[in-house]
Amino acid sequence: MILNRRKSLRVKRYFIVTVLFMCALQSAASGADKVRAAYTSPGPTQGLLWIADIGRLFVKNGLSVEIIYTRAAIEALVAGEVEFGQMTGSLMTSARLQGADPVMLAGVQDFLDDRLVARPTIKSVEDLKGKRIGIFRFGSASHYGLSERDVAFLQIGDTPARLIALSAGSIDATLASPPDYLEAVNVGMKVLLNHRDLNVPYQGTGLVVTQRLLATKRDIARRFLKSYVEAIHLVKTDPAISKRAFSKYRQTKDEKQLESAYLTLREIVKPKPYPSVEGFKTILKDASDKVAAAKSANPKDFIDVSLLEELDRSGAIDALYR
To answer: Quick one: pLDDT at residue 10?
Structure first.
């Protein structure tokens, strides 16, 4: 009887502590600064935003973040509909060359690692001439080694949409990052080119804001970036939380897919995620054939590392790994 009472008391204490903890979290969240962040793809390189959410890093840093999946992330950012965007360097570069003010605070990926996958009848990149290549959207160019004189670029959408179009025969080829390209390989598609083998510096996914926001809400940007950097630490040290985030945002419970996506992000992201100046040089070089302003543009103008340098100098990043 006494043992039963003790057990009942322990259960009650546990319940009370749990309720108090959840109330504290709710209270912290209710007093947090509310912001919105958009991301452009369910690919693994987008994972830091999701991990910061599932790991409650935003809440820890006094932020209540609404995360939005949209193909129009750069438009939403420039229009002020969201405060933060997670997108490729090429996507934000197109907007900046047209007079908008986006800058990248942190970079996730600084080289190309996409695979060019095609229908099985196509044996080489040269065979793509005259064919249809599916792309995410115009203005998000990548290295195909082909121009619009050679092929027809069709704006299809994100990776899942492009892979469906490829399997259905609506397009002849597309780019897909690891591990997603394997879905195409598994249904008989052919890898024509692994961009990683080319070792091309290229600014892929990164955290982007406007210079307006940095001027008016700098402390919010500081805390968001801190959450982002802490998410990298979770990627390096806590596979369980990372996979929970991937499961929610990639909408899968397949353990093999989760492991592959997680490892992809863990291998490419750096503890100190400085954007790549050389990567932006490549993007501007690609754009220079179409946009005159790209020829004279300074790649450093597309980056703002002041907050990251501040965090780095404070020792906060190094302290995460001690």
So the answer is: 54
Q: Is the domain of 133 the same as that of 279? A: no
168-182 pLDDT tens trace: 999 999 988 888 888
Q: Are residues 153 and 179 in the same domain?
A: yes
Give the domain range for residue 37: 32-111+202-320
Residue 290's domain is classified under what CATH number?
3.40.190.10
Domain boundary among 178, 198, 218: 198
- 7 assigned to some structural domain: no
Query: Quick one: 260 and 209 in the same domain?
Result: yes
> For residue 42, which of 155, 160, 207, 138 has the smallest C-alpha distance?
160
The 3 state secondary structure assigned to the chain is: CHHHHHHHHHHHHHHHHHHHHHHHHHHHHHCCEEEEEEECCCCHHHHHHHHHHHCCHHHHCCEEEEEEECCCHHHHHHCCCCCEEEEEHHHHHHHHHCCCCEEEEEECCCECCCEEEECCCCCCHHHHCCCEEEECCCCCCCCCCCCCCCCEEEECCCHHHHHHHHHHCCCCEEEECCCCHHHHHHCCCEEEEEHHHHCCECCCEEEEEEHHHHHHCHHHHHHHHHHHHHHHHHHHHCHHHHHHHHHHHHCCCCHHHHHHHHHHHHHHCCCCCCCCHHHHHHHHHHHCCCCCHHHHCCHHHHECCHHHHHHHHCCHHHHHCC
Q: Tell me: the pLDDT tens digits for 189-231?
A: 999 998 888 888 999 999 999 999 999 999 999 999 999 999 9
The sign of the dihedral angle between the CA atoms of 294, 298, 301, 307 is positive
Inter-residue contact 205 to 45 (CB < 8 Å): yes
